[in-house]
Please model this.
Amino acid sequence: MDENAILKKAKLWLQPPFDSSTQQEIEQLVSSNSNELVDRFYKDMEFGTGGMRGIMGAGTNRINKYTLGRATQGLTNYLKKSFPNKELKVAIAYDCRHNSDTFAKVVADVFSANNIKVFLFEELRPTPELSFAVRHLNCDAGIVLTASHNPPEYNGYKVYWNDGGQIVPPEDAAIIKEVNNLGFDDINFNSNEQLIQHIGKDVDKVFIEACVQNGTFNTSNKGELKIVFTSLHGTSIVSIPEALKKAGFKDVNIVKEQKKPNGDFPTVTSPNPEEPEALKMAIDLANKINADIVIGTDPDCDRLGIAVRDLDGNMKLLNGNQTMSVMTNYLIKQWYQDGRLNGKQFVGSTIVSTNLVTDIAKSYNVETKIGLTGFKWIAKMIRDFEHQEFIGGGEESFGYMVGDFVRDKDAVTATVLACEIAIDAKNNSSSFYKELLNIYEKHSFYKEHLISLVKKGAEGAATIKQMMIDLRSSPLQEIDGSKVEYLYDYQNSVKKNLVTGESETIDIPTSNVLIYQTKDGTRVAARPSGTEPKIKFYFSVNLPLDAISNAVTVEKLLDQKIERIIKELKLD
Model:
């Protein structure tokens, strides 16, 4: 879009239906000839893998009253077409971010103005509780106002369907079509307060009871596990301490400096448990009091980071692949010991997550279903395969889901499960980390790594697009001395054998992802983020582990291999 078109688009925001404060904000940008005007209007905010997420402010490419109102009006129109003559109901939750509560009320106003019953949480709540509430209250849809672990200037809007999972095809495209057919003057903001019901403790009670029921397995001596927990200024503080208490864990030490919800996230550079820096205060506390395990969650409480003591007694931050491998192994083992496995169970994973999960499941004759990145695809698996039982599922980005009572990644239940695994191991003279090494010894030592390259604005989007074009048009032939055997192109739904030239169709929805797999089992994936201005590169390498005593040596070899690949691809 050229500058004249952008200016013309921006000037539409200098008149009704936009309010005076919005008009003033845009007028200042227009009069100062600000470069920011381009970024605010060069495109419209749209749904990605995690819904709609962006920087707050006036403009079509910003999160504000009008972009949220338009999305909600479009969803409303689609709901009425999908369920004619039905009394429609939606649930709405929000996190600790700036304006989340205000935006939640705007969304509630639009739904109620369109004669839809709204269940609005009275205060901030975890995202997984919204997913739970949708089914618990028999709603037709749900909304969470959150930007997950993004910086403070971000907010977002996640849409859930009546199964409690985020929207997937065909609903997502159909909703987007409805939204795109609307002008901002088509939004009905005239709230019907009688249709807005505030909810809270009653739903909390049932949700936490379900978390404990799904995340515990009657393990003894729970009071002997010393836990450090941090909410990183987010919503998990309202649920996780209570869930751990109900599960029987008594020695829970909360990082006080990070306990209070705060959208500025003042004690961390990024409120992302994937980042070691985010858990530094928690690990420092753990070392001070000699804790067994550290758990930290992101602002909306769907991701969790875990640190445990390694064989030398030092705190080690696990990555999402390691955590999901230990959790999946533990859950399947519990099902096996209870005599519940009959060949009709499955676990869920994603195309950029570790293949170790598949190896673990296969050893128990349990199927692994693999979908695109994002938990909405794991939720879709549950919906599509109702004749099978879902044990659990995860993805590399620090998310896990236990059972199907929540249909999104759930840090509340996953926290309870992590502590259950830790105390069970401790009771058996083992540890959470040693259980991971036992898995490596049985299968193979897998090591994964992620690099995210930030490319902001229109120019950044063009750069990311060209990088993916180059990777497709000139495929890598060799990675760290091992010949590339397969190229998975999920945008074109093709798996190509680069050795024989044979191709086969990939039978999952399309996505702009490329995965290279070499003869020695190395995997490199490239994927533009659906919610952030980033392109992500995922690396997975593995080697046999003949004895736990050799784990440090093998891990060093794998780290060196990843470093060589990064340099080879010029990503360092």
